[in-house]
């Protein structure tokens, strides 16, 4: 039960040996049992693992048929936090790691898409003591399959970095004297999945979407007997489009603030109206591209496949409506049939972010200023 006074009961998984009751998985989150009398968890041939209430009604089931070849089936909770239904020969029939609720644990393979169809989503609790489906969820953006996003209902709430050579390759998220957290996103066959691991001897680590809409990475501290936040989004100005059109959220300083992209200035007294061009850009008039480094590229891009860097640049430069482009090679080892990732933008650029590292180049189209040296621009614009 989430609280001592709550009449609702749930089948859940939580940490056994820390003082703070922390639930990481709930089976019947939208169908609680209101009485503990005769509540039963069992295994049936027709439905696998099954949870029944005091009237014998099915509250939750894994819906796996158990065949004659699965003799000796049992259910076991592993020390990883994975609840597994398995046969006597060790074959996994069902596991909770394949059905996360609001939390990801180390080693859990979070399948984001299968055959280019979005399948995985974390759904936050409705409240701190209510595990039913809440308003916020995390999953792959179905419009592109290239980025994780947080939704507030059906409204885009926050984006993470678009898939590029850095996010595909993975790397340490945070390291200190006691642990390293390593995360990666990988394509294997028809699956695209996210997974993270921690070094041996690390404290407990979990990743979750909470009921306020924040995606958090938390680490357990024995000294304070509490969870420490080691990373979270959104914060400051990285809520979706919070810096307006042609603005970006600057994470390079101590204080995270909105700024205008190069060649733009604030349109009004604050960023509610975004930024405007200093020099108007018109079709047929001289223009050039500037490379803006270490960015999370804007939203609302068009993904063009099977393009080299030069071809991607040409796609944008030949279209006077194109305002920017970005390019990445997602694989150098042949993992992808098409490792190119050419993105182009037309119209306004929204929800851009700047970092101190781990970003990528955005090539922004600007109008030439009077007296600008075109020879210097030609040399500059040709550099990837």
TrEMBL record:
PANTHER family per the UniProt record, alphabetical: BULB-TYPE LECTIN DOMAIN-CONTAINING PROTEIN, RECEPTOR-LIKE SERINE_THREONINE-PROTEIN KINASE
Membrane-topology descriptor: Single-pass type I membrane protein
Domain Bulb-type lectin: 1-98
Taxonomic classification: Eukaryota, Viridiplantae, Streptophyta, Embryophyta, Tracheophyta
Protein name: non-specific serine/threonine protein kinase
Residues of the Apple domain: 283-367
Primary location: membrane
Protein task: Involved in sporophytic self-incompatibility system (the inability of flowering plants to achieve self-fertilization).
Keyword Disulfide bond: yes
EC number assigned by the record: 2.7.11.1
Pfam families on file: B_lectin, PAN_2, S_locus_glycop
This protein's GO CC annotations: membrane
Catalytic reaction annotation: L-threonyl-[protein] + ATP = O-phospho-L-threonyl-[protein] + ADP + H(+); L-seryl-[protein] + ATP = O-phospho-L-seryl-[protein] + ADP + H(+)
Gene Ontology MF: a single term: protein serine/threonine kinase activity
Keywords noted in UniProt: Disulfide bond, Receptor, Signal
InterPro entries: Bulb-type_lectin_dom, Bulb-type_lectin_dom_sf, Pan_app, S_locus_glycoprot_dom, SLSG/EP1
Gene Ontology annotations of biological process type: recognition of pollen; response to other organism
Protein localization: Membrane
